[in-house]
Amino acid sequence: MALWIIRVLFLAMCTVGGFAVSQVRPEFVVVPYSEFLGMAGGFGFGWLMIGIDELLKGFSLRAFSATTFGLILGTVVAQLIDHSGLFQHVQEETTRWLIRLSLFLSFGYIGIILAMRSNKEDFSLIIPYVRFAPQNKPDNLLLLDTSTIIDGRIADLIEANFVEGLIVVPRFVLKELQQIADSADAIKRARGRRGLEVLNRIQRNTRNEVKIHDGDFPDEKDVDAKLVRLARNLRAKLYTNDHNLGKIAELQSVNHVNLHELATCMRTVLLPGEVVSLRIVREGKDKGQGVGYLPDGTMVVVNHAQAHVGQQVDAQVQSLLQTGAGIIIFADLKPPVTSESHELEKPRSVG
After folding, report:
1. Fewest C-beta in 10 Å: which of 30, 172, 284, 296?
2. Of 230, 265, 300, which residue sits at a domain end?
3. Same domain, 248 and 285
């Protein structure tokens, strides 16, 4: 909205400027309806500038500075070649002009391309002791998608100081959150509102700065495609819970973190023979089995625990089964320990 206010003001200034030019230039004053022609010319010039602005929407200040540096470098090289004496035998002025034009265009283009493909370390080799890096700003950008914000665990990681950097939330992700929060479906509405609450919680945290990024890609209709392109353009690390989005990011060499995979890596490691204490919450699939869960969500199937649903029991791990959804632990119900053996073997409490 603020951008369009600036554009409207710019159009108005261009229109007034065109009218002023038509009044102060004598050669224009004698032309019929010169004031209208001047206003139309100024208005057209303003729209031309706005059109160029739209074409350069994804062009950052870093890219502009790199392009300028590359153009200057290419121009210097072309100037050196032009004054090297290689073309002194060319006497015809038109031919000499064409050679110079080709030199400046060719080396200007090559300089721009090389500068765009280079990083700040390459610049530091060309200009020693100079680093083109912002001061007092974190180098790592953390791009959050909708699923990560709704999940909420990213806020816990930030508050626990496990995640450091500039938090980037795209405007189109914020819009998607608002659409989910306004959904007619009660479950979606609750998820959307939770996401907005988590985002407010992240913004209140003083350790990490949060930036709402206005960049968008109108040619991309899918939010996932926009996220991958934005992460690649910003060189940011993409945080997501979407397995498919993570695979797309991996195929396009975009650095990403899947919080589900991170949680799997942080799960409690239990070995056969260990004793755990947990609550049986429901009956198992087979007769006599009871099912409980560890704090990290790992399911534990306990034999002979059907009669203990709703109770806290001790179980000895027998085996572990790796599935696509995670690890399932199979255990046997451990009989209550006597006072004599209580000191010898204490169960590992995870509940």
Report:
1. 30
2. 265
3. no
| pLDDT given for residue 138 in this prediction | 46
* Residues 186 and 228 occupy one common structural domain: yes
Return the pLDDT at 351. Answer: 46
Residue 288 dihedral angles phi and psi, to the nearest 5°: 85, -5
CB 330 within 8 A of CB 321: yes
CA–CA separation, 297 and 308 (whole Å):
20
Same-domain check for residues 86 and 112:
yes
pLDDT tens, residue by residue, 286-333: 888 999 988 777 889 999 888 888 888 988 998 888 776 668 889 998
Question: Model pTM?
Answer: 0.47
Token pair in block for residue 105 = 């265009």
Q: Does some domain include residue 41?
A: yes
Q: Are residues 255 and 311 in the same domain?
A: no
Nearest to residue 212, comparing CAs of 166, 280, 279?
A: 166
7 C-beta neighbours (distance < 10 Å), count? 15
Look up residue 98 and give its two tokens.
């064409």
**Residue 99 phi/psi, 5° resolution?**
-65, -45
CA dihedral 20, 23, 28, 29 (to 10 degrees): 160
Measured between alpha carbons, how far is 341 from 335 in angstroms, rounded to an integer? 12
Q: Could you list the residue range(s) of the whole structural domain that residue 255 is in? A: 141-265
**Are 294 and 250 in the same domain?**
no
